[in-house]
């Protein structure tokens, strides 16, 4: 009895952090197996693209910018796995439904699948032998079977841990998974243009791709020993808030924009207990852009008004509860040129100069990504899949 006890589940994986680690030349931004912020989305299989809707702002219908792409395969899964996060770079779309989106993509790893099939085949044979033994009058008595103990733990249902860290080291050693060739979107599109008879379901028109420069992420474990218990440096944040206030004040001078969603913000209102906790934790590694913890607990920007589980919701494909996987941190907004790109955006907007001057791009306190707990795979194992997942965005408090 005693030896059947499971390993104590108390062991807690550290939170993994993604830190900026140098620009990726746009000509080199063709790898689906790295983890980055900005850049263009590179698909696991350029022949099977997601619906272009995932790149479109649900509010203004304009193309969104890729903020994050991460290669995050799960342990004991036969799939290569990538998470993509997009955001609309229009300040007017912030705090509105649909201005951020997230996609979870799978591509089967044929080698892993073959190994898994072999394992299952061996198991089946073993069980068959056992049955034959039981059928014989001199065989082992029927009843308790050791096989039952293991039978339930098929790879797709065991709890999974991520190999984010190993992925990072893999990526920096530029080792590519053997089974795959990554394709840039540009390649994919030129291919599609040449070949009208492809079986591709979706075509993503080139004009719908807008992008920031890409920045590689270095993945490291969070070290809480760096936690400063005193003297939180708020200066950088204060600077950011001051800049925002200045912009909002000048915008408020224009009657058209005052009194609507955007009100003058002052620091004290945004600083609650939870926010202090957030800043303290960030101080351990101020350059962090991404926090990753499969099925973990997000670091909230401020307190929630409702339980996290109700915000996370359920998988639209299989109905399983969603779990937290990762979150984007405010430093993303200083690494990516969001304001620069927003103001240089010569859009068709008729309201003209004021709006353009006022648009400082996207903003957020944190963008939390929630994904299907089962990491489900719609359709055939062999064909790539894309599932839209869920984001919860927290902003500065009004
Ligand atoms: Zn928008
Ligand atoms: Zn699911």
UniProtKB/TrEMBL annotation:
Classification via InterPro entries: PDCD2-like_regulator, PDCD2_C
Superkingdom of origin: Eukaryota
Organism expressing this protein natively: Lichtheimia ornata
Cellular component terms (Gene Ontology): cytoplasm
Ranges that cross the membrane: none
All copies of domain Programmed cell death protein 2 C-terminal, residue ranges: 272-394
Region feature (Disordered): 117-140
Full protein name: Programmed cell death protein 2 C-terminal domain-containing protein
């Amino acid at each position: 009895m005693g030896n059947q006890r499971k390993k104590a589940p108390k062991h807690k994986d550290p939170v993994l952090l993604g830190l900026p680690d140098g620009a990726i030349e746009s000509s080199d931004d063709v790898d689906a197996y790295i983890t980055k912020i900005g850049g263009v989305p590179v698909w696991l299989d350029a022949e099977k693209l997601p619906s272009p809707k995932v790149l479109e702002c649900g509010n203004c219908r304009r193309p969104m910018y890729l903020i994050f792409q991460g290669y995050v395969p799960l342990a004991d899964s036969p799939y290569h796995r990538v998470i993509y996060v997009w955001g609309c770079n229009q300040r007017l779309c912030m705090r509105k439904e649909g201005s951020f989106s997230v996609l979870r993509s799978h591509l089967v790893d044929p080698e892993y699948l073959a190994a898994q099939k072999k394992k299952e085949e061996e198991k089946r044979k073993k069980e068959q032998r056992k049955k034959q033994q039981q059928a014989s009058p001199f065989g082992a008595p029927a009843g308790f079977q050791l096989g039952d103990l293991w039978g339930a733990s098929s790879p797709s249902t065991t709890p999974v841990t991520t190999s984010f860290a190993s992925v990072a080291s893999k990526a920096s050693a530029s080792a590519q998974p053997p089974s795959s060739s990554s394709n840039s979107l540009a390649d994919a599109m030129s291919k599609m243009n040449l070949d009208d008879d492809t079986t591709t379901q979706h075509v993503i028109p080139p004009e719908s791709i807008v992008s920031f420069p890409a920045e590689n992420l270095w993945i490291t474990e969070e070290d809480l020993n760096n936690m400063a218990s005193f003297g939180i440096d708020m200066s950088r944040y204060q600077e950011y808030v001051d800049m925002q206030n200045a912009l909002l004040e000048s915008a408020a001078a224009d009657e058209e924009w005052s009194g609507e969603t955007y009100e003058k913000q002052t620091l004290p209102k945004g600083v609650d207990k939870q926010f202090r906790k957030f800043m303290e934790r960030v101080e351990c590694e101020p350059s962090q852009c991404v926090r990753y913890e499969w099925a973990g607990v997000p670091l909230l920007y401020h307190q929630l008004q409702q339980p996290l589980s109700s915000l996370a919701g359920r998988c639209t494909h299989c109905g399983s509860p969603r779990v937290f996987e990762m979150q984007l941190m405010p430093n993303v907004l200083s690494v990516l040129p969001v304001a620069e790109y927003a103001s240089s955006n010569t859009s068709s907007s008729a309201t003209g100069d004021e709006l353009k001057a006022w648009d400082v791009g996207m903003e957020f306190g944190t963008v939390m990504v929630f994904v299907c707990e089962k990491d489900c795979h719609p359709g055939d194992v062999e064909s790539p899949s894309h599932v839209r997942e869920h984001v919860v965005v927290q902003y500065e408090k009004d």
